[in-house]
């Protein structure tokens, strides 16, 4: 039967009444030009409030009304959706715009104390020179141009994957729309991957939604969660520091952001007592319904212990919170003794009391880990224990954006179904993956080490993900000067760093931090040699900065 | 009870799409055929979506060669690809950070491609200037439309943002608008006059709407979807004047600009007309114009490449658009590359020029022939009438159903044209879209067929449809 709420009967019969009647919406009513307008108005609580716009005279002479029109635009900061005004996004904020400008100036021959801009602001591995996985690109090239399927340069396993993906595409072309939820065979492969990863915990392809990067999935889930007004308005718990996608989406949706602070002194760990405090505070003015976790952490690089995940799940179960687990860095774990545990796996290991009730959405992407393929915008989310009616709404909601880019879906498929032992591409694949991950681990160590040699900079171990988030102690004079300029002190610091060294970082204020503390986020992605230079430049700059403002 | 049970009323207001149910049923039938179940037809034809590749049209070779070389740059060293493909791929890779299509691009897209698009627009508009900074490359035109709607839509009750939208409409646009909490303000196209826009109808619709919401925008689709009208320059001028007088922001969906079949019609962009009208219009009327690599000769829906060009927007608003858009990181690079090729195709003298030109010309001929043939065949059937298909990639014929068929549908609780589509799917293995999906004037019934298919596919579509139609009419008449 059709899963969207209606069923079709067996062939060659007229559909009987099982097919529910069309729900009549406002839209339908608006369609009947002959219907008395009162019918529509009567249903609205706000009655005949007259509108401030121009009177509805039949066709006023263009001259005058056009003059009036010229005075003001339709869409201004005052008339637009006011929630949009609150949206901020530091990762691509003013500092990045300035970096782009500086690059342009350098090209035009403007003299600077540096020869290139180093963008350590964004988790973009390929931009920093990381090479793609050969197998992935071979398969994608054949999917794009299937005539290459007869080319000897490509190994058989790559050809097999390409054929399988093309089979799943409409008209066997990656240029056809896929189902909104994603290509069926890709969703099956994702489900099998999740099962393998989680030691056999079952995964249903129907619960997998392919997305345009992880962001698409996260924003879609938040849209579903946000409802109510005033004290019943949805609150969403997010960590501080957080990845600003969350705060931006919550601002746009007009939801209440409920902050819980990670414990910097204990390596950015998550304390359930802090969750409790934040929740109790929030319940006084909103309706907290969801708890977002980023593990491994962005920007903070911590990796949650299994025990901690269990505690969080217990908390969510007790307080009836929907869990959103952002797990896009699941392969990026470097510190000894740390291991990635998915929320889903832990949930199922805790037994049916939890595994059959706690609602969870977990997110993954092709942009991070060892592949770093940000430009494809591939990703998926898995929903667990979601109410079937809500799931139907979710399916509708994703259909509004048609489908995620098909090459990204194809790439997601390869990530979850990479070469297997015995296949011709296996050893190359393993070698490439290992080289990237072990080099990242080395860079994580190096970053922590060097930053901690600088007086006034304190950096927690980068246990996972792709960033360091060190704390910087800024002199009072620098803070004052920043405030005079109306800038956050760490923005002032990062802007100065950019102007003097060409290094582009994101200030901690863009992620949120405890009052009176200052940080920056720096990726560990530049190649080791370059990273060393970058770190020593940061060191020199910091010392100069301190001297200048003491 | 589930934590998630109480979802936003805006979302639950999104209508269930009949099309989804039809598509799912179509998939089931396809599966059944694969398993060897007996049906009165050998294979299923699905032309319910505007999806050229799914319909069987082939991608343009040059596009796919360039993309494959960008994906796997080792191909640049082989003799496998033509020289202009290689040089295009090299240039594009140079634009990408780390020379990889796997890196993020700037929020609005690769600057070089924004540039190509602005030149393309200027050429198209006979020299009307276009600035790359006003172009945002998006994940298909639908994302661009959503972006603009997110800026607009707010308010409740009489302050709720309304957008005037054509009927028959694009269901996706209406779904997007409703899901954001906006009001659909329908204005009807005049079917008898070949689906033209009529100002008196637009005024009526606006006046009615102003009693209960705050109409801020006017959405037009030219060439039309699902109806194949192509607006004349005069008609566009009228619409622009109307928008200026009534203070409406114009959203011009021009994704079918490449598909005009009627030799007497011509695509003229809203931007060009606006420019040619001169001040005060040209420097005040706010316009967002949308285009895409999914339609036209490219038909690359799956790559998700589209763009919006903004005209006369408030600069502070532009800043907010940028921030809003930047939260989505960037548009998939393959989609951006497709746009680059659309904007800047091979030129005379390039190695691929002849082949490219031929493929594009074949594609256009196919569409033109299909448009003509569909129109002729459908109009020859009793109980069906089809307005001229001047542009776009759909036919939207009206069904004149016998009263008994309508009664039967009502009894079953479905729209009469959905009933028709369901039976057509079951009996003939042909999946087309019901007009009810697109809203339509009360008591009229239509079908939507995508005509972007190979000619022999279309031939078979028309044979199946004609046979079924006769059968259906006979079954329910008298």
From TrEMBL, chain A:
- Per the UniProt entry, the Enzyme Commission number(s) are 2.6.1.2
**GO terms, molecular function:** L-alanine:2-oxoglutarate aminotransferase activity; pyridoxal phosphate binding
**GO cellular component terms given for this protein:** cytoplasm
Reactions catalysed according to its record: L-alanine + 2-oxoglutarate = pyruvate + L-glutamate
Which cofactors are reported in the record for this sequence?
Answer: pyridoxal 5'-phosphate
Pathway stated in the Swiss-Prot or TrEMBL entry: Amino-acid degradation; L-alanine degradation via transaminase pathway; pyruvate from L-alanine: step 1/1
- Matching InterPro entries: ALAT1/2-like (IPR045088), Aminotransferase_I/II_large (IPR004839), PyrdxlP-dep_Trfase (IPR015424), PyrdxlP-dep_Trfase_major (IPR015421), PyrdxlP-dep_Trfase_small (IPR015422)
Question: Where does the secretion signal sit in this chain?
Answer: none
The first-level EC class reads transferase
Ranges of residues in domain Aminotransferase class I/classII large:
171-536
Question: What domain of life?
Answer: Eukaryota
Could you tell me which residues belong to the region Disordered?
1-39
Pfam families for the chain = Aminotran_1_2
- Alphabetically list the UniProt keywords: Aminotransferase, Pyridoxal phosphate, Transferase
Q: Gene3D superfamilies per the record?
A: 1.10.287.1970, Aspartate Aminotransferase, domain 1, Type I PLP-dependent aspartate aminotransferase-like (Major domain)
* SUBUNIT field: Homodimer.
The record's similarity note reads:
Belongs to the class-I pyridoxal-phosphate-dependent aminotransferase family. Alanine aminotransferase subfamily.
The free-text function statement in the UniProt record for this protein reads:
Catalyzes the reversible transamination between alanine and 2-oxoglutarate to form pyruvate and glutamate.
Q: Tell me what this protein is called.
A: alanine transaminase
């Amino acid at each position: 039967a059709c899963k969207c709420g209606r069923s079709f009967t067996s062939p060659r019969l007229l559909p009987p009444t099982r097919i529910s009647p069309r729900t009549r919406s406002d839209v339908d009513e608006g369609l009947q030009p002959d219907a008395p307008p009162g019918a529509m108005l009567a249903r609205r609580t706000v009655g005949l409030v007259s509108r401030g716009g121009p009177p509805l005279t039949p066709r006023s002479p263009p001259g005058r009304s056009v003059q009036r029109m010229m005075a003001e635009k339709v869409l201004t900061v005052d008339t637009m959706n006011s929630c949009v005004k609150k949206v901020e996004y530091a990762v691509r904020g003013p500092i990045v715009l300035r970096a782009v400008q500086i690059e342009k100036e350098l090209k035009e021959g403007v003299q600077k104390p540096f020869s290139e801009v180093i963008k350590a602001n964004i988790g973009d591995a390929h931009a920093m020179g990381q090479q793609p996985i050969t197998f992935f690109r071979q398969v994608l090239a054949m999917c794009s141009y299937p005539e290459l399927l007869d080319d000897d340069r490509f190994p058989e396993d790559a050809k097999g994957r390409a054929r399988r993906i093309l089979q799943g595409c409409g008209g066997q072309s990656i240029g056809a729309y896929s189902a909104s939820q994603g290509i069926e065979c890709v969703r099956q492969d994702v489900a099998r991957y999740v099962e393998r990863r989680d030691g056999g915990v079952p995964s249903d392809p129907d619960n997998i939604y392919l997305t345009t990067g992880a962001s698409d999935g996260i924003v879609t889930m938040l849209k579903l969660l946000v409802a109510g007004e005033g004290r019943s308005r949805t609150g969403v718990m997010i960590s501080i520091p957080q990845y600003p996608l969350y705060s931006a989406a919550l601002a746009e949706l007009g939801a209440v952001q409920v902050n819980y602070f990670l414990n910097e002194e204990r390596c950015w760990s998550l304390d359930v007592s802090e969750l409790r405090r934040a929740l109790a505070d929030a319940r006084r003015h909103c309706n907290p319904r969801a708890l977002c976790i980023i593990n491994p952490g962005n920007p903070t690089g911590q990796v949650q212990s299994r025990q901690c995940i269990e505690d969080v799940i217990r908390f969510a179960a007790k307080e009836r919170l929907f869990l959103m687990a952002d797990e896009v860095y699941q392969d990026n774990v470097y510190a000894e003794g740390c291991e990635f545990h998915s929320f889903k796996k832990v949930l199922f290991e805790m037994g049916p009391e939890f595994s059959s009730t706690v609602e969870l959405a977990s997110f993954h992407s092709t942009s991070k880990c060892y592949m770093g393929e940000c430009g494809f915008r591939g990703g998926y989310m898995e929903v667990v224990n979601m109410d079937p009616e809500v799931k139907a709404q979710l399916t509708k909601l994703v259909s509004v954006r048609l489908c995620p880019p098909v090459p990204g879906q194809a790439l997601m498929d390869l990530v979850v179904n990479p070469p297997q032992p015995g296949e011709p591409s296996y050893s190359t694949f393993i070698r490439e993956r290992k080289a990237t991950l072990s080099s990242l681990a080395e860079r994580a160590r190096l970053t922590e080490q060097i930053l901690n040699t600088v007086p006034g900079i304190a950096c927690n171990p980068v246990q996972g993900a792709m960033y360091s988030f060190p704390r910087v102690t800024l002199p009072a004079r620098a803070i004052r000067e920043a405030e005079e300029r109306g800038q956050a002190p760490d923005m002032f610091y990062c802007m100065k760093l950019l102007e003097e060294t060409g290094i582009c970082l994101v200030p901690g204020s863009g992620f949120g931090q405890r009052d009176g503390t200052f940080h920056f986020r720096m990726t560990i992605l530049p190649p080791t040699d370059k990273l060393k230079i970058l770190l020593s430049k940061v060191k020199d700059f910091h010392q100069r900065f301190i001297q200048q403002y003491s | 009870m589930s934590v998630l049970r109480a979802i936003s009323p805006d979302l639950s207001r999104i209508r269930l799409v009949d099309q989804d149910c039809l598509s799912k049923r179509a998939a089931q039938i396809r599966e059944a055929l694969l398993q060897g179940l007996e049906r009165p037809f050998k294979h299923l034809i699905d032309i319910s979506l505007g999806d050229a590749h799914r319909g069987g049209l082939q991608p343009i070779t040059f596009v796919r060669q360039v993309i494959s070389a960008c994906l796997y740059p080792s191909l640049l060293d082989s003799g496998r690809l033509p020289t202009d493909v290689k040089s295009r791929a090299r240039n594009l890779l140079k634009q990408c950070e780390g020379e990889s299509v796997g890196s993020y691009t700037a929020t609005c897209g690769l600057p070089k491609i924004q540039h190509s698009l602005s030149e393309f627009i200027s050429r198209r508009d006979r020299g009307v200037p276009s600035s790359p900074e006003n172009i945002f490359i998006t994940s298909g035109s639908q994302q661009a439309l959503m972006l603009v709607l997110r800026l607009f839509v707010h308010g409740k009750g009489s302050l709720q943002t309304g957008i005037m939208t054509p009927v028959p409409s694009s269901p996706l646009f209406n779904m997007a608008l409703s899901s954001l909490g906006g009001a659909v303000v329908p204005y009807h196209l005049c079917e008898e006059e070949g689906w033209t826009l009529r100002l008196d109808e637009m005024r009526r619709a606006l006046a009615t709407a102003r009693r209960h919401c705050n109409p801020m925008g006017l959405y037009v689709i030219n060439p039309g979807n699902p109806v194949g009208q192509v607006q004349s320059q005069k008609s566009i001028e009228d619409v622009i004047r109307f928008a200026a007088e009534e203070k409406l922001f114009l959203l011009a969906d021009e994704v079918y600009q490449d598909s005009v079949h009627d030799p007497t019609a011509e695509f003229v962009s809203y931007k060009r007309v606006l420019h040619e009208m001169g001040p005060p219009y040209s420097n005040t009327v706010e316009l967002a114009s949308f285009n895409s690599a999914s339609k036209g000769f490219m038909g690359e829906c799956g790559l998700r490449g589209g763009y919006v060009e903004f005209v006369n927007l408030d600069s502070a608003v532009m800043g907010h658009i940028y921030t809003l858009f930047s939260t989505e990181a960037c548009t998939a690079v393959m989609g951006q590359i497709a746009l680059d090729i659309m904007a800047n195709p091979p030129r005379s003298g390039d190695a691929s020029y002849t082949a490219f030109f031929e493929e594009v010309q074949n594609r256009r001929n196919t569409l033109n022939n299909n448009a003509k043939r569909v129109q002729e065949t459908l109009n020859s059937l009793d109980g069906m009438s089809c307005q001229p298909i001047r542009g776009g990639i759909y036919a939207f014929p009206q069904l004149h159903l016998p009263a008994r068929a309508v009664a039967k549908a009502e009894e079953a609780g479905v729209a009469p044209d959905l009933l028709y589509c369901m039976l057509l799917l079951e009996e003939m293995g042909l999946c087309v879209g019901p007009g009810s999906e697109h809203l339509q004037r009360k008591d009229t019934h239509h079908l939507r067929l995508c005509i972007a298919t190979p000619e022999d596919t279309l031939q078979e579509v028309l044979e199946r449809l004609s046979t079924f139609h006769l059968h259906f009419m006979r079954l329910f008449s008298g």
